[in-house]
Amino acid sequence: MADPGERWGLRLRVFLFFALIAAGAVAALAAAGVVAARHAPPEAVADLVLAFGVAAFPILLLTTWVWLKFDENVVRPIGVLSTEIRAAVHAGARGAPDAKVGRYLGVLAPAAREAVAAIAAQRARTDAAVAAAVSDAARQRGRLESVLRDLEEGLVICTLQHRIRLYNRQALQLMQVAGDLGIDRSLLALVAAQPIRHALGRLLNRFEAGRHHDHPEGLTALVVTHTLERNRQLRCRMVLTLDGDGKAPTGYILTVADITNELSAGVWRDRLLQEVTEDIRSRVAALVLAGEVLAARLPPGTPDADRFAALFPTEAGALATRLDQLDAAANDLLAGAWPMTHVLSPTLLALVRDRRSEQRDLAVTLDGLSLWLRCDSASVVDLLDRMLNRIAVFARTERFTLATRRGEHHAHVDLAWTGDPVPLDVLAVWLDERLDDGLGPITGRDVLSRHKTDLWCLAAPEGSAVLRLPLALAPAHDDRAARLPERPLVYDFDLSAPEGSPRRADTPLKALTIVVFDTETTGLEPSGGDEIVQIAGVRIVNGRVVRGEVFDSYVDPKRSIPPASTWVHGITDDRVRGADPIDRVLPRFHAFTGEAVLCAHNAAFDMSFLNRHAARLGLAFEPPVLDTVLLAAALFGPTESLTLDALATRFDITIPDEERHTAIGDSRATALVLLALFDLLEASGVVTLADAVRVSEAQVAIRRAQKAYT
Amino acid sequence: MSAPSLTSASDRTAPAVLLAAEAPLDAALTALLADAGFVVRPAGSRAEALAAAVGAAVAVVDTRLADGGGFPLLEALRADPATRHLPVILLVGRAAPVEVEKAGALGAAAILTKPFAGADLLDRVRRLCGANSARPDGEVHHG
Known about the structure:
The complex is a heterodimer.
Chain A: H1 10-39, H2 45-91, H3 108-150, E1 154-159, E2 164-167, H4 169-174, H5 193-208, E3 220-226, E4 233-242, E5 249-258, H6 260-297, H7 305-331, E6 341-344, H8 345-355, E7 363-368, E8 372-375, H9 377-394, E9 399-406, E10 411-418, H10 424-432, H11 444-450, E11 456-460, E12 464-473, E13 514-521, E14 532-541, E15 544-554, H12 563-569, H13 573-576, H14 582-593, E16 597-600, H15 603-617, E17 625-627, H16 628-636, H17 644-650, H18 663-683, H19 689-709
Parallel strand pairs in A: 7-9, 13-16, 16-17
Antiparallel strand pairs in A: 1-2, 1-5, 3-4, 4-5, 6-8, 8-12, 9-10, 10-12, 11-12, 13-14, 14-15
Helix pairs in contact in A: 1-2, 2-3, 6-7, 8-9, 14-15, 16-18, 16-19
Chain B: H1 7-11, E1 16-20, H2 25-35, E2 39-42, H3 46-53, E3 58-62, H4 70-79, E4 88-92, H5 97-105, E5 110-113, H6 118-134, E6 141-142
């Protein structure tokens, strides 16, 4: 088959080549004949012509025969082989070329057949790997699905555009969806949009500003919304999901619980308590006063008059104290039925400024303190936004200042403008209006009563006015330091896969549970009094380093760290002072390793430190212990550079600078090196734990022998 | 019993007290204030209260009023130049800090949470009657 780019096919070229040889030979003969005929006598010309014919005929015959043979045994087989190689490469054909084809092509034909077979084998491997990955993904998805199914809460995963990507059955029920929720449908078609948008906006702002690192709620936010069907109140927790690098948000996870009954019971209880105490107060006040008046009007000398008269004020006082206690509980701004979140006041004010529900061009300046408020921020923002828009019309102004201040019992959100204050009657009308549809059928007054607060207007100096909304201050956020460092979600849906003993000799390497660890020490001589100053380890399960499952502890070596060692690992005496001693840390590390196989880079060194203390503490680290140095030596030969850095470079594993030569950084790097080694070992027939132990022991023997000779 | 010492006060021009409260409290308050020698001007609605406030020495306003409550009345009294300096004792039904703060912000001279002893109210009324002539702005007492 001729390539489109090629003008002439191979066969034509070869034919032309032979034709040229034949034509050249015949032409040379003819030329020789012509020269001879010139000098020969005329009678000899006939003989010369005959001689030319006798010479030219075999040349043509022979050339043709050779061409035919060449065509049959060389040119055509080349065509066949190239077609087959092409078929193997492009079309995935697996059949090996006919062994007879290309007999006369020397090693070309066998080489081509090997190439075709190698391509086919590679293709089969790739197909198998793809199939395995697909079934692995399917299995993981199955596990994820069963986990979600058994979850009591509803769960919905959405994109940043609120498109539903995944949900469980509970979510369907909670959101009052009959039939299928429908992947790629918008969540906002099912639940009130405004609280969801609001929470997502808050989380995105928090993430972009990097505030999630020290925000008490991290990248999560509470959302109270309701279903558009049947108006069920939902309490959701929104978790922003990030891409693999944690650099960009990809969507959010929403866990959903129906709190309609809980909420209405709570709201009903709150309201009842408030109404009843207020009613009792009025009635008791009337009784006390009536009693006092009557007692005062009694004629002097009435028996017991003074005693009973004194009863009224004292009992009124006692009763007032009791009712105050009840009120304090009922009116506690922090103990309402409505779920509240903590929000930093500048965030809240910025959300009000940017809400612009009525697209008015208002200039809102933010001011005041930065305070942690406790509120349902979506409804508060809408309430303030509504007030802003109404006041803009009422006071014919476009310039506002929005500030938070600290009051005696709570925070004040103050909205100030130049102009008249708004009378309470007007405010009352505004508060009875429905807020944004996205929040559902609630009024400003509902928002106030949820927050057990009120708002009012005051005239301020210089012709300005202030609308004041008291909100609860969130309890102190001083516990921030005590919070756990942010760590990724620890999960592995495959964890349930390998049941039984995880360290049997015939366990495939990739099915092993392994703790890869590293120690930093005061020096290189455990027998010479050197001690561990840091132990760290990571866990490998099912051929993956489990994120978040980390052991990392300093150890007080009870001796000084030589400067040379500090120079290597950066750990100073000050750093380990106050850390637990090895007697405390080692049992914890032993518990962390559990049933796992241990692995370290140059494990013998680390184990010599561990075992010395383990024996004393009655702990035992079960062999075998894998060693990345020995495994790498088995693959690359003992003369290659087998340092952790060299292996990491070889496998393109980057250790962040700040983690280099820290126990945790080296553990991670060693774990990744180990997994890379597993791939290569598998290819060279080292598949099980026993295989790995065998090649490791062979390397130990080689090293011993080398030592003996040097 | 402090009533006898007050009989002399009624001989002179007795101070008028605007009373904006609803049943059952209004009857008891009227009797209490009248017995103490004050001229009680009861008001059932906001319009009545605003009219009766002119010339009164003190106003006693219950926050639990039918037409809009005591806070708008307090605000209206403050807005009217004729009653701007009239000291108002607000009777509140809740001891919530927000309520107390709102009362103070709107210019109540004193706040009493119900229930209270008659003597406490009379004490404040008397004090504010005296203060009203001397001081235009009432002092805020949190009861």
